[in-house]
Amino acid sequence: MTLTTETSSLTRGEKTKYRLAESMKECMCHTPVDAITVRQITENCGLTRQTFYRNFMDKFALINWYFDKLLIKSFEYMGQGKTVQEGLQLKFSYIAEEKEFFRAAFRYDRQNSLREHDFQLIFRFYQDLIQLKTGAPASEDIRFLLEMYCHGSISMTIEWVLSGMTNSPEDLARLMVEAMPAKLADLFASFGILTE
Question: For residues 41 and 60, what is the distance between their CA atoms, to the nearest angstrom?
């Protein structure tokens, strides 16, 4: 099940965004991201360029918006009952369901890339989670470890996607948790959200 199948409760604007995302995904099946044009995206789904630009600044904003929807869905309850491992497992399951989209998106590694967007989103999410749980921003040491961990986990996620996803989402999530620096793992464990 992809996110686009749950459209009954969406606003008209959200439906348009999902329609553009579906079109982008179709284009990505046969054209590299850097070669896809807004014209191709809009013609493929029967919308106008003006509609595209009312919703997105460029094709990278569209890719990042769709990724955000996947990430938010997988992490939305973390820290409120679900664990880091469960959130990661959900994220990797969504990525596996959308493997063609992510394969194409992660191959593009220039300006506005999904790799950088993923880092910014996850790094901010973990910082906000720490602030919420402790009432204070992460210490300098924890922030450094968190930044290093986020870069490493994104690199390994991209490697997993581009090399054919040989590990299951469950195994990859477990490995990501096991690879977490001890100080960071201890902090998340103290919140009761590291693993089950």
Answer: 12
Rounded distance between C-alpha atoms, residue 29 and residue 100, angstroms: 7
Q: What angle do helix axes 38-45 and 59-75 make, rounded to 10 degrees?
A: 70
Q: By 3-state DSSP, what share of the chain in percent is helix, strand and coil, each rounded to 5?
A: 70, 0, 25
Q: pLDDT digits over 101-142, tens only?
A: 888 888 876 655 778 888 888 899 899 989 999 999 999 999
Q: How far is CA 119 from the centre of its chain?
A: 9
pTM: 0.78
**Closest of 122, 129, 59 to residue 95, by C-alpha:** 122
Q: Residue 106 and residue 71: Cα distance in Å, rounded?
A: 15
Measured distance CA(85)–CA(95) in Å, rounded? 15
The neighbour count for residue 94, using CB atoms within 10 Å, is 20
Q: Which residues pair with 78 in a beta bridge?
A: 82
Q: Give the amino acid at 164.
A: G
Q: Which two tokens stand for residue 192?
A: 């009761």
H or E stretch at 155: helix 140-162
Tell me how far apart the alpha carbons of residues 178 and 171 are, in angstroms, rounded to a whole number: 10
Kindly give, in sequence order, each residue whose CB lies less than 8 Å from that of residue 160, ignoring residues fewer than 6 positions away.
Answer: 92, 166, 167, 172
CB 132 within 8 A of CB 163: no
Structure tokens at 60: 């990278």
CB 137 within 8 A of CB 131: yes
